[in-house]
Design brief:
Radius of gyration: 17 Å
Largest sheet: 2 strands, antiparallel
Strand content: 15-25%
Distance between the termini: 28 Å
Helix content: 25-40%
Strand order of the largest sheet: 1-2
Number of domains: 1
Bound molecules: iron/sulfur cluster
Shape: flat
Length: 78
């Protein structure tokens, strides 16, 4: 999403990003950003907009192990 924001605000192409693992001696990792990532992010954004704007309730995850550590577990009806 940062890449999308940079592209939109500075009108430049973004094709890489960097992660800094501050708990691992500031290990720096370069990540290639592919155009299909932006398509995926836009899809997720659209779903979030539907949830917030239209009251659409998303389906629960089919990976129930994710629920164990989910902060919404106490209120989730799935
Ligand atoms: S508990 Fe969390 S991870 Fe599991 S279905 Fe509900 S919202 Fe999704």
């Amino acid at each position: 999403m940062y890449g999308m924001l940079i592209e939109d605000n500075y009108d430049i192409e973004v094709n890489r990003a960097y992660l800094v693992y501050t708990r691992s001696k500031d290990k720096l990792v370069e990540i290639e950003i592919k155009k299909e990532y932006f398509i995926e992010v836009n899809s997720v954004l659209q779903e979030i907009i539907n949830i917030v704007g239209k009251g659409y309730y998303p389906k629960g995850t089919s990976y129930k192990r994710r629920c164990r550590d989910c902060c919404y577990r106490n209120i989730c009806v799935k």
